[in-house]
């Protein structure tokens, strides 16, 4: 019987994995996997890749990360997230070569492992095959999760680790074993180190469990309480220690590249708040989740209070704590919600939590509705629609191909924006993807510092060229001539421009006397001496 039960469990897991891979294929993951940094927030993608590249090229100590942009300090030393993924990618590159798909594949693996553990959690709580598969796949229709899972940013893997942490914490509470609490703690710790916002669910769950055990101290399993407190304390101590170190490291090197603190609503003016609210409502919300589905989730949340006496106390309290954490997060990082949709990723935890709580309530109190074939058929139709919608939204970010005579679920404004985006990248940045061999043919080595005025980001062009130096980022009060003079002071030997800058050469004309190369729309000049500003 035990072997048969284990066989069924493995069989269910295999079915879920196959469905997850099939949905990923619909999302075009198999092709996107081999893309360089591209599409939405390519700026931040290049920053993440730049960390990995410098670990790879420079054999850096884990705790001394660098990027290609040298910054004010002239050494490129800076830190954003806990660099465990960047460092791991670099070690794999040393074995298999610098292949960006390895980076994407690591993030995909972490998120898929989290979704698989959510499947196991739902199956353990609900004892229903359909909903155990439905909940994680429903979550995986979030455009923001789908886009950033097959990407380079840290938010999605941190979220995946939080999902895994939830499952192993549930296992520990249900069947206390030290190994599960330590594995849960490891997942939460790693997720929190990478992105502290992934700890919303950790605080919600562990806070309630510890409080509950303390209130019932006489009847409490003292070993369970001890292990929970040790795990909680270790996570908090190590996480706080890392962020203290990260702020110190940036303060003595380059502190202007990455956000290391809150971005609160009270630091905005009335006009700024209105603009951000509008952006959050009109742009970021649709990237977060389907609006109707999200409204339905919120209605389910409200309904739990109507039937609160029949709802699982642990799950309902966790929902309340999690919702409070979500509101607090929106307040503390409000300024990021102008365009940075990836900041919303870890708020997705609210969706499976509400579904799990509601379906558990439904199963215990209205079993016939829970098991009714028509209900499951309707949920299947909804899931299929959301997968199709997300597939269209995800695919258009990488190409402007029309899959139907008329766009389905893609607005005209989105179509026009992405067509422009693809055109702009093709005409201004795509040459950087393949320019590296040409630079080496000009005897420009990776150690030679350059200034690239064709790029307003921190690292896009520098990463793609595999060069250290500067871009047009920063030094807002500087003219282009002052930027080049500053770069020369920092040891830059070459100036790199695109055809756009050359249309207005007055400021830069004195630096354009020694052209040494032309690659597509990119011009390369040797720099000699600094000129008067």
Structural class: mainly alpha
**SS field, number of helical segments:** 21
Average of pLDDT: 92
Order of helices and strands: HHHHHHHHHHHHHHHHHHHEHEHEEE
Using the CA coordinates, give the radius of gyration: 25 Å
Helix content: 55-70%
Q: What fraction of the residues are assigned to beta strands by DSSP?
A: under 5%
- Poorly predicted residue ranges: none
Outline: globular
Main sheet summary: 5 strands, mixed
Tell me what you see in this structure.
This protein is mainly α. 61% of the residues lie in helices and 5% in strands. The chain has 21 helices and five strands. The protein has helices spanning 2-26, 29-32, 42-58, 84-96, 100-126, 129-139, 143-149, 155-174, 178-194, 200-215, 222-251, 270-288, 291-306, 313-332, 350-365, 367-371, 373-395, 412-428, 436-441, 460-465, 480-489, and strands spanning 449-452, 469-471, 492-498, 515-519, 522-526. Strands 2-1-3-5-4 form a five-stranded mixed sheet, with helices on one face. Strand 4 and strand 5 (522-526) form a beta hairpin. Helix 4 packs across helix 5 (100-126) and helix 14 (313-332) runs antiparallel to helix 15.
């Amino acid at each position: 019987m035990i072997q048969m039960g284990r066989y069924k469990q493995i069989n269910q897991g295999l079915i879920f994995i196959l469905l997850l891979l099939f949905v990923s294929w619909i999302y075009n993951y198999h092709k996107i996997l081999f893309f360089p940094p591209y599409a939405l927030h390519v700026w931040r993608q290049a920053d993440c890749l730049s960390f990995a590249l410098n670990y790879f090229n420079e054999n850096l100590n884990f705790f001394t990360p660098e990027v290609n942009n040298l910054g004010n300090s002239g050494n490129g030393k800076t830190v954003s997230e806990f660099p465990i993924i960047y460092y791991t990618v670099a070690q794999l590159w040393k074995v298999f070569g610098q292949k960006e798909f390895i980076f994407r594949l690591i993030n995909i693996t972490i998120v898929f492992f989290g979704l698989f553990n959510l499947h196991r959690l739902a199956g353990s709580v609900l004892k229903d095959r359909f909903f155990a598969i439905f909940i994680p796949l429903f979550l995986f229709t979030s455009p923001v999760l789908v886009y950033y899972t097959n990407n380079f940013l840290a938010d999605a893997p941190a979220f995946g680790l939080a999902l895994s942490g939830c499952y192993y914490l549930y296992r520990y509470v249900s069947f206390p074993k030290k190994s599960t609490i330590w594995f849960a703690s490891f997942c939460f710790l790693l997720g929190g180190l990478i992105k502290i916002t992934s700890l919303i669910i950790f605080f919600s769950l562990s806070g309630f469990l510890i409080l509950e055990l303390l209130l019932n101290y006489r009847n409490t399993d003292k070993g369970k309480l001890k292990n929970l407190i040790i795990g909680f304390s270790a996570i908090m101590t190590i996480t706080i220690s890392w962020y203290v170190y990260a702020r110190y490291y940036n303060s003595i090197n380059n502190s202007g590249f990455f956000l290391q603190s809150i971005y609160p609503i009270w630091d905005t003016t009335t006009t700024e708040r209105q603009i951000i609210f509008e952006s959050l409502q009109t742009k970021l919300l649709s990237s977060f989740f389907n609006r109707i589905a999200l409204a339905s989730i919120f209605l389910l949340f409200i309904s739990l209070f109507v039937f609160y006496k029949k709802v699982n106390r642990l799950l309902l309290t966790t929902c309340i704590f999690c919702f409070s954490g979500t509101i607090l997060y929106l307040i503390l990082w409000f300024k990021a919600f102008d365009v940075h949709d990836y900041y919303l990723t870890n708020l997705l935890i609210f969706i499976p939590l509400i579904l799990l709580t509601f379906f558990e309530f439904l199963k215990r109190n209205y079993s016939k509705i829970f098991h009714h074939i028509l209900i499951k058929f309707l949920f299947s139709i909804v899931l299929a629609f959301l997968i199709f919608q997300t597939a269209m939204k995800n695919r258009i970010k990488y190409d402007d191909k029309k899959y139907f005579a008329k766009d389905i679920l893609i607005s005209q404004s989105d179509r026009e924006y992405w067509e422009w985006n693809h055109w702009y990248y093709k005409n201004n940045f795509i040459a950087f993807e393949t320019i590296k061999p040409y630079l080496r043919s000009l005897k420009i080595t990776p150690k030679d510092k350059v200034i690239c005025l064709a790029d307003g980001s921190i690292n896009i062009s520098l990463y793609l060229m595999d060069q250290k130096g500067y871009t047009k980022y920063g030094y807002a009060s500087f003219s282009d001539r002052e930027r080049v003079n500053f770069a020369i002071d920092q040891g830059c030997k070459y100036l790199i421009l695109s055809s756009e800058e050359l249309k207005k050469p007055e400021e830069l004309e004195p630096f354009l006397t020694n052209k040494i190369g032309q690659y597509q729309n990119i011009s390369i000049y040797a720099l000699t001496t600094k000129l008067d500003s």
